[in-house]
């Protein structure tokens, strides 16, 4: 009788142990919240006029990353530089605009 009780107890305890131990999901890596400028100050504006026309590849995401400004400021800065002729458009796509520095010669690079 003790033997049969032991045999019955073993399967329930092993399956019960699996049910009791749940998978602990990792939270994943938490990225720091970006603190990008939402208003242009004089120093950032001067950096845009001085540095951006020297970049070989100019896009909204590049300006956000390097100058720590938000997306709307990056778009305005790109439009301003294109209107002044300091940069020229390479690719016009509905979601991504790609620019490069304007060359003085105007010939092939």
Automatic annotation (TrEMBL):
Bias (Basic residues): 19-28
InterPro entries for this protein: Ribosomal_eS25
One GO location term (cellular component): ribonucleoprotein complex
Keywords tagged on the record: Ribonucleoprotein, Ribosomal protein
Low complexity biased stretches: 1-18
Protein known as: 40S ribosomal protein S25
PANTHER family in UniProt: 40S RIBOSOMAL PROTEIN S25
Stated family: Belongs to the eukaryotic ribosomal protein eS25 family.
Region of interest (Disordered), ranges: 1-30
